[in-house]
Amino acid sequence: MSKFDTAPAKTGDTFVRHNPNYLKMFYGTDQVTPFWVADMDLPIADPIKDALRYVAERGQFAYEFNSDGIFAAISAWFARRHDLTLKPENFVPFPGVLTAISLLIRELSNDGDGVLIQVPAYHQFGKIITAAGRKAVKSSLINDAGRYRMDYADLEAKLTPDHVKLMLLCNPHNPVGRVWTMDELTKVVEIAERQGVTIISDEIHADIVYGDARFTSLSSLDNEQHVSVLGSPAKTFGMQSISNGYIYTENDAILKRMNHVEDSMYLGHGNAFTTFATIAAYEKGDAWVDELLSYLQGTIEWIDDFLSDELPKVKMSPAEGTYQLWLDCSDTGLEGDALKAKLGEAGFGATPGTWFDQDATRFIRINIAAPRADLQDALRRFKNVLD
Ligand SMILES: Cc1ncc(COP(=O)(O)O)c(C=O)c1O
């Protein structure tokens, strides 16, 4: 029995993932176990709860900032867990990763410029690019028997300065679960550099990596030319509603510009709960994250076996990183609305693939940061409605 086998109680709460109105809208019923939003249905680490309790019980909420403490803790975490040297003074705090990306896009490109994303892509990317008045230029990843790889020829053709100013990289990749290797990243950086394109690297899923896969930060390749690293404790520690994000760059011009944006708009004023929880997470959360990773790994192995043995019509892309699994349902013969209807019938709240790529009509994504038994029950129900 693991502490992750039990989900925290949700009665009366307003979690997006469990909101019956959303469930009815997406699946036609609220009788669905939800695996769609990329947050956690698991109990968080005790040091985080203790820190939140400490701030609440202190009972005083005077002005209080501690960005230095946060970035010292984050730098030490990356050194310890990823052998990565990040200078605390090169971080800039922002309210969240999407806010940081939205501001970077506005600062580093102009109206009408192209921003390249690799599809399938985290669905908010296209939205924030378009909302900023830029054009989302898509490069499809190549599906190589389930394991996705980058299309360098396509990148070469599209990453041209008059076409695209920025590339938004997702590493590890949501939703296809790839953890890009040093070799792959080197090739992308080489193309981008040659074309004068700036890469914005969203590394929010950096800590969720399995088996032999190793996270390589873009900052370890080229730390001066044009690279920003974005992250937050949200995914690693299940702090989605109490986290702030940050950017990290060793490009002096980008650092200066983003410090000015943050300063002039007062965007770095994280609240005390976030500050204390973040420092506690990065300073005292190692053991909890190790346990989480081994629990998720166990869930992945169970799903892999279940699909091979009992539901071979559904195929899983190798899970190298993130707690999102990307499943190919092509052999079920179902797609689009028909596939969605079966998810509703099974009470299996997976996300339709079309959220991430309009052509991924036969794919679904499931968030496995939930008690294993919930996933087991839902997958068995899915098998039953497909049989
Ligand atoms: C790749 C990626 N970036 C950013 C986010 C959201 O980050 P934030 O909540 O800090 O804006 C997510 C959430 O799913 C994500 O998967």
Specify the number of helices: 13
Q: Strand tally, please? A: 15
Question: How many distinct domains?
Answer: 2
Could you tell me the CATH topology label of the largest domain.
Aspartate Aminotransferase, domain 2
CATH structural architecture of the largest domain: 3-Layer(aba) Sandwich
The first-level CATH class of the largest domain is given as Alpha Beta
Q: State the shape.
A: globular
- Please mark out the parts with pLDDT under 50 across 5 or more consecutive residues, or reply none: none
Strand content: 15-25%
- SSE string, helices as H and strands as E: HEHHEHEHEEEHEHEEHEHHHEEHEEEH
State the helical fraction: 40-55%
Strand order of the largest sheet: 2-10-9-8-7-3-4
Q: Whole-number average pLDDT?
A: 95
* Major sheet attributes: 7 strands, mixed
Assembly form of the protein? single chain
Bound molecules: pyridoxal-5'-phosphate
CATH level-4 homologous superfamily of the largest domain: Type I PLP-dependent aspartate aminotransferase-like (Major domain)
Roughly how many Å is the radius of gyration? 21 Å
Topology overview:
Blueprint: H1 20-27, E1 33-34, H2 46-58, H3 67-82, E2 91-94, H4 97-108, E3 114-119, H5 123-131, E4 135-140, E5 142-144, E6 147-149, H6 152-158, E7 164-170, H7 182-195, E8 198-202, E9 227-231, H8 234-237, E10 245-249, H9 252-264, H10 272-284, H11 286-310, E11 315-316, E12 324-328, H12 336-346, E13 348-349, E14 351-352, E15 363-367, H13 372-386
Parallel strand pairs: 1-13, 3-4, 3-7, 7-8, 8-9
Antiparallel strand pairs: 2-10, 5-6, 9-10, 11-12, 12-15, 14-15
Helix pairs in contact: 2-10, 3-10, 4-5, 4-9, 11-13, 12-13
Residues 38, 96-98, 122, 170, 174, 202, 204, 232, 234, 245 line the site of pyridoxal-5'-phosphate.
